[in-house]
Amino acid sequence: MTGPLSLIDAADLPGRLRQALRDGGRPRMAYAWTPAPGVIELRYVIGRGSGQPFEIWSVRPIQNEAPSVAGDCPLLGWYEREITDLFGVVFSGHPEPNRLVLHPGVEAPGPPFAPSFPPDARLRVRQNVSAMPEVEGNDVQRLPWGPVRADVVESAEFVFFYIGEHILHLHAQLFFKHRGIEKRFRGMTGQAGVVLAERVSGVGSVAHALAFCQALEAAAGCEVPLRARRIRTLLAEMERLYNHLHYLGNLAEMTTLKVGGAEGKLLEERAKQLNARLTGSRFLRGLLTPGGVRRDLDPGDWLGAELARLREETNAYVELLEGTGSYLDRLITTGVLERQVALDQGATGPIARASGVDHDVRRDHPYAGYDLEAFTVAARTAGDAHARAQVRIEEIETSFTLIDRLLERLAPGDLRSPCNSVAGSEGLGWAESPRGALFYAVHLDGAGRLARVKIKSPSFSNWRVFPFTVHDSNMMDYAINEASFGLTIAGCDR
Questions:
Q1: If we measure between CA atoms, which residue out of 268, 259, 275, 308 comes closest to residue 392?
Q2: What span, in angstroms and rounded, lies between the C-alpha atoms of 393 and 353?
Q3: Are residues 345 and 464 in contact, defined by beta-carbon separation less than 8 angstroms?
Q4: For 17-55, what is each residue's pLDDT tens digit?
Q5: 294-324: per-residue pLDDT in tens?
Q6: Model confidence over 402-429: pLDDT tens digits?
Q7: Of 181, 343, 380, 479, which has the fewest beta carbons less than 10 angstroms from its beta carbon?
Q8: HSE-CB for 224 with a 13 A CA cutoff
Q9: 141-145/90-92 β-pairing
Q10: E strand or H helix at 441, and its extent?
Q11: What pairing do the DSSP bridges indicate for beta strands 90-92 and 65-67?
Q12: Cis omega (within 30 of 0) on the bond before 147?
């Protein structure tokens, strides 16, 4: 649920934001769009707490300039830098006025999201040198790692400043694989947009499609039938299940438990095979559509039986992991994320909940069928790699329980309602992906086609937070720490 649009003068924005923060509000994202040629509008999405509607603030820059609020609310720093790169808006007083999406040395004929940007323009790269911090000391060494890293890991560059094994500072450069997906939505129908949303981040196909569909449904004012809502919830929990099993296998492998790593990946594979048998897609694609689901599912009795076996095997696997001393030794106290840092920098999902930030939009802002089911949100306070793993372990158990209930209550009913695009409308949708809160904001043009789609992915938030757990740590723990975050670069880069 969202509240009415609030129009705020640019000069009043810092004061309004500070007041919202004092009142317990928390910005969720910021973005820009062009409602008319030559007109840029900034949007801020503000959360006011569990059960409260999201507030939408509209701000018009003055002569293409707006005050930065990143000093008061650091999590908005990346959003402001992204808007500067893509729309050309200057945020005065920004504490980190460096490029984010367009790397240093990239030459463009103008802001890529400006309506006047030539559709066939090619970006030229003169030199790609990141803006590095000044680190002094005769013994300080500098190690660049990436953008091509080992195995099939996605492209990113990490520059370590270190002495011996001690890491003084980590500088992360992402967006090597920025695909301009938000711009690719422009001119699409809502039906076609679902196909693109499912491919923003493959391992979050359901979450992305769900948040996108719900944004369109909010814009159109359509209601989703009960059976479709429960099917959507079932798919979302099936997606969470295989993601968290992959996470545990990867984390075990990083702690040198090769058999444990293989076992976790095997459990993940079995979950994906169940996905394929149920829907025809290992990644659960092709089911969601604005207004409901495209076709029915027939889980019969086989799905519940197979999930019961998978649950038993998973519980035995987790018991072995949590009883292995070498595994625990590598996780406990590794990569501690303090609660205040998590709040300030915008951590979300299991990362935030492992540091004592108890937010989950499934419970706090229910969607699909989550308002029909009671469930416990896992949380910890230690904020280390072990706490992050424990949160996901509990979420696996919760997913099994929710799926069991959904299968029992999946009564016959309609699969979708008419969801006709309303010209000039807009909507906000959200979902709790396996990695955290995911938001889609959509704006439709006069023909009912997509004019602007903004994606706030959880990895965009958590990649910003991650370096704070690396500074003042050691090289031997780095790979374990990164694995404990469970990040995706595709979801961040878009």
A1: 268
A2: 13
A3: yes
A4: 999 999 999 999 999 999 988 899 999 999 988 889 999
A5: 999 999 899 999 999 999 999 999 999 999 9
A6: 999 999 999 999 999 999 889 999 999 9
A7: 479
A8: 24
A9: unpaired
A10: strand 436-444
A11: parallel
A12: yes
Paired tokens of 459:
């990895």
Type of residue found at 488: T
CA dist 216 and 222 (Å) reads 9
Say how far apart CA 43 and CA 27 lie, in whole Å.
11
Q: What does the DSSP 8-state code read for residue 129?
A: -
Residue type, 73: C
Q: Identify which of 271, 144, 244 has the alpha carbon closest to the alpha carbon of residue 484.
A: 244
Domains with residue ranges and CATH for the chain:
1-117 (3.30.460.80), 184-461+478-485 (1.10.645.10)
Q: Report the distance separating Cα 8 and Cα 30, nearest Å.
A: 14
Interval 115-170: pLDDT, tens: 788 877 777 877 656 666 677 777 888 888 878 877 667 888 888 898 988 888 88
Burial class (CB in 10 A: 0-12, 13-18, 19+), 106: middle
CA distance 181 to 196: 8
Tokens read off for 354: 């492992």
Q: How far is Cα 178 from Cα 247, in angstroms, rounded to an integer?
A: 24
484 in Cβ contact with 389 (< 8 Å): yes
Residue 24, by phi and psi: left (phi above 0), alpha (psi -120 to 50) or beta? left
CA distance 321 to 235: 27
Q: What is the C-alpha to C-alpha distance for residues 103 and 427, in angstroms, rounded to an integer?
A: 31
